């Protein structure tokens, strides 16, 4: 474990990567106490995801033998009312299953609250005092984890005040200080670079954990396990055998109560730049030499660096956007995006993106990756489809042949399906397409952990493998930036409208049809 040193303006991401080599990996138990400070504690994400994940970790003794969780946000509140608010939220919307009242009571006795302004040094000094007092009272030692779950505009203020209040440095050589930063990390390349600069003027890269909750999902991590723990898939996983790859992250939900935020984001920023490019990196990545933060993240970065940059012409031909209009989802009529609360009635924000991505390296040259995400689509499903090339020479009469596909279902019906052709019973030589299915639920039951619990647990253990490094975040923005630029310059271009409950605009189909391909809808 590395002590958290303070100011460091010169460290590069690569230097940091080398220092991380010794970071803990695996499931070693947590033997040291920790204090977590949760900024944005009264917000939705904190209550729905982060605190329930901490409860889950506490039940598995993965937060440490002793811990304190200090909520910090602007709303004045006592410890007691903070405990009540988060309990209500956890009980109604928690992802971690039913909450046991006795266990919750025990957990809640470790919750505290401190109100303050994110840009106010005095409030951070008060926080520092409170942390010292708690540490003395509960024998918590000096390990501290700061979690930024606020609106992204205040990240720079919090980071700067943590630095000024002396909270970014560990209090002793054997203690650590880490910071988890929620997505979105910036809103384009320039702002991501600026944020990295601010964060790295206060923290070392090895202290920084940029979270993308998709990497905490078991099925996403399984992309690496499937590829690199088996001998049978990897030999086929390249341009010689793969025709193309499809990655779909489809949601049936609309923008819910986040219209205001979504208006400033859109699907390219909200889903493609982060979750979908993470999935792409894991599908395309070269085998890392080891499963550790440095090796895995170095290889993932190379994928983004090999992606062919979008120019004006490619944005026009290889990227499709759309926005949902009124329609029917799960049998119920739903309003269009422009009718959602907080949304401009003339909004041109995209709620759907489909794009062709080319990866210019030896493994993937000439193999298109088709990426697609959207809100209010026909079905909630995140899926990776590896479409294999057809048999090179068809010996059967009537050119009978079937598609070979490997489908990795990331959510919600987690599993893997391989499809291939077999001889249909009977006197005729007929070929039918069949599937071999593996279901996570059937094989392992329902006991999956929330992605947030996995990632928080990793951070407490000092394992950054499943977190994003500063250079990768910038590489992902560098890839989508030209698309954002073209769209923002084309102020009058129409954004195709698709009916809620469909698979997106017709243009998305055309993107594949022009090369004789089609989307495999989940
Ligand atoms: C978030 C996006 O990062 O991911 C949301 O901001 C999206 O718009 C969500 O709905 C999807 O996450 P999941 O885990 O439900 O697929």
Provide the structure class.
alpha/beta
Overall number of structural domains: 2
Major sheet size, sense and barrel closure: 9 strands, mixed
CATH topological fold name of the largest domain: Dihydrodipicolinate Reductase, domain 2
Task: Return the average pLDDT rounded to an integer.
Answer: 92
Low-confidence residue ranges = 1-11, 14-28
Share of residues in strands: 15-25%
The radius of gyration is 24 Å
Considering the protein shown, what is the CATH homologous superfamily of the largest domain? Dihydrodipicolinate Reductase, domain 2
Helix content: 25-40%
Q: How would you characterize the overall build of this protein?
A:
- There is one protein chain.
- With about 525 residues, the protein is α/β, with parallel strands linked by helices.
- The chain folds into 2 domains: about 200 residues, Rossmann fold (3-Layer(aba) Sandwich), CATH 3.40.50; about 220 residues, Dihydrodipicolinate Reductase, domain 2.
- A 9-stranded mixed β-sheet has the order 16-15-14-13-7-12-11-8-17, sandwiched between helices.
- α2 packs across α14 and α7 runs antiparallel to α15.
- The chain starts with 12 loop residues before the first helix and ends in a 9-residue tail after the last helix.
- Bound molecules: 6-O-phosphono-beta-D-glucopyranose.
- The site of 6-O-phosphono-beta-D-glucopyranose has 3 residues, from loops.
